[in-house]
Structure formats: structure tokens, C-alpha cells
Design a protein that fits this description.
five-stranded mixed beta sheet, Jelly Rolls, five-stranded antiparallel beta sheet
Length: 312
């Protein structure tokens, strides 16, 4: 009983330290990322600090400047539907020249998007405010949030991003010309893929009309589902149908569901077992035929009568 007051005092001290550290977490300064003149693209995802449920007014300490001084700034949300989530990162121009860069946050990322509650893509960043200067200008882009920033020689700038969604999968820093070349190359690649998928779906549909077997409609449906998913993922559907940003997730979910359903139908029609003379289903794979079955599958003629199979 004599040790109880000491244990209680130690527990209270630990609790006070934890509460103090958690309260001071938003005030910690971020480490700046150094930028060189020859850098074409940098992945900033690992250097971005996320702060949840901070409200419409957010206070944060900036990265140390060239003079080593850490300042504290406050940012107010620009979006009326702000979730109170913020992202903070810092950039340092170590060169003696002015650098123009693009901050790019893609709307959708297939890797680690989830299975049961997938992330179907959305607007990631509503606005970005630097520690010095005015808010960054948003560039027009259908599949990413793009902001243009100019870094003066020898400066260290902290950027506070107002998040429009709870998740921020990736953030990149691009050279403007390199990003333009990347977008143009992907546009050509996407056009080629959509063209091949469309021709394949049309060809399989013609085969279904000509042949009329059970496998060709499943294959054609799978090809059309793949084409629909590619059109949504590449943003090609927006050029033919006006889709608001909120409805794009529904289209993506619908095409993914159709792709999964048609794939299951294709597998079931491709590997559908036939009937054997032994009283059970006979698999279409000879190496998986049961040891007790010594006959081949029964086939039928055009008039519906059974044709006896030759036993081994």
C-alpha cells in the first residue's frame, strides 16, 4: 500500500506527457525536400504529413528557413465543405535559379485502392497555400489536381494543402515540360489500347452472331466490359457523356462489377463440365478425369439423340 501513491504519481506523469506530445504534434516543423535543377519528377508521398480533424482554421509550424528560424502560420479553409483534414510538406530550392514546378495529386490509383471498400477516386486537394506568397493556381486537368508553383533561389517554402477527401495516395512534383511530355505519351498509349479493345469487342460480337455457340456471347460480353472499364479509367467516357465529378465513382464501380460478373460467366461457359456415361459430370480436362470413369464424355447429334462414346 505504501507504493500506491508512487505508482499513481508515475501514471499521472506519463499521461500528462502523452497529452502534451499529442497536443504539440501539429506544431512540429516539417523537413524540407531539396530540389535540384535537373529533377524531372519527385515522389512527395512519403514526405507529406497528414493532420486529421483540425477544423476550418489550421495552425502549423513552417520548416526552418535559410536563417534557421521556424515560424508559425494559420490557414483558413477555402472550401465550404471542408473535412478539416490537412496535408503539410516543404520544398527547398538549393539552386541559384528560379524553378517552376507542378504539384500533382492523381485522382485515382489502382494500387492499394482496396477490395471490400475500394477507393474509387475523387478530388484530392481543394487548395494549396504556401508560407510565403499567394495561394497556388490550379491547372486544368481531368484526372489529377495540378498546381503550379514558383520557387525563388535559396528559399524554403512550406505548403499547406486543404484536402478534399480523407485519402491522399500520391503527390508528385513535376517539371512542367516533363509532365507535358508524360501526359502526351500516355494519351497516345491510351488511344491505342482503346482502339484495340474496341476492335476486339466488335470482332467477338460478330463471331457470336455467326457461330451462335454459348462461349462467344460470354467472351463478347467480357470484351465489352473491358472496353467500358478502360473508357472510364482513361477518362474517354467524359468526352462522349457529360459526367459530373461525383458520378464518376458510380461509373467506375459499375464497370468493375460488370467486369467481374462477365469474367465469372466466361469461366463458367469455358470450363462447363459435360455428362459422362458413368452417371456423373465428366471434366473437360483429360488429366483430371476420375480414376473410376473409363469413358469419354457423351456427345449429342444435331437431332438431339445421344451418340455413344467409345470406352477406353
Amino acid at each position: 500500500m505504501t507504493n500506491f501513491p508512487r505508482i499513481a504519481s508515475l501514471f499521472a506523469l506519463i499521461l500528462a506527457v502523452v497529452v502534451t506530445l499529442s497536443a504539440a504534434a501539429p506544431a512540429l516543423a516539417v523537413e524540407p525536400i531539396k530540389i535540384a535543377r535537373d529533377d524531372k519528377a519527385l515522389d512527395l508521398s512519403g514526405a507529406v504529413a497528414i493532420y486529421r480533424n483540425q477544423g476550418e482554421n489550421f495552425q502549423v509550424s513552417t520548416a526552418p528557413g535559410p536563417d534557421g528560424i521556424v515560424r508559425r502560420i494559420e490557414v483558413e479553409a477555402n472550401d465550404a465543405r471542408s473535412t478539416g483534414d490537412w496535408a503539410v510538406f516543404a520544398l527547398a530550392n538549393t539552386t541559384d535559379q528560379q524553378l517552376d514546378r507542378l504539384i500533382v495529386a492523381p485522382h485515382f490509383r489502382l494500387v492499394n485502392s482496396g477490395i471490400f471498400w475500394p477507393d474509387l477516386g475523387s478530388t484530392r486537394i481543394a487548395a494549396i497555400t504556401p508560407s510565403e506568397g499567394f495561394a497556388l493556381d490550379r491547372q486544368t486537368s481531368p484526372d489529377a489536381d495540378v498546381f503550379r508553383v514558383t520557387l525563388n533561389p535559396g528559399t524554403v517554402v512550406t505548403f499547406i494543402a486543404e484536402l478534399a477527401s480523407p485519402k491522399l495516395p500520391q503527390v508528385y512534383l513535376w517539371d512542367p515540360e516533363s509532365y507535358k511530355d508524360s501526359v502526351n505519351s500516355y494519351t497516345l498509349f491510351r488511344g491505342i489500347v482503346i482502339g484495340i479493345a474496341g476492335l476486339l469487342a466488335l470482332f467477338l460480337t460478330i463471331l457470336f452472331v455467326v457461330k451462335g455457340t454459348s462461349m462467344f456471347p460470354a467472351t463478347a460480353a467480357l470484351a465489352w466490359a473491358v472496353l467500358a472499364y478502360i473508357c472510364v479509367d482513361f477518362g474517354f467516357l467524359n468526352k462522349g457523356i457529360e459526367i459530373s465529378p461525383g458520378n464518376e465513382q458510380m461509373w467506375r464501380a459499375g464497370t468493375e462489377g460488370a467486369l467481374a460478373a462477365t469474367f465469372v460467366v466466361f469461366l463458367s461457359s469455358r470450363y462447363r463440365p459435360a455428362t459422362s456415361r458413368c452417371g456423373g459430370p465428366a471434366p473437360r480436362w483429360p488429366w483430371r478425369r476420375p480414376s473410376w470413369c473409363s469413358c469419354s464424355p457423351i456427345s449429342t447429334s444435331t437431332d438431339g439423340t445421344a451418340i455413344s462414346a467409345t470406352a477406353r
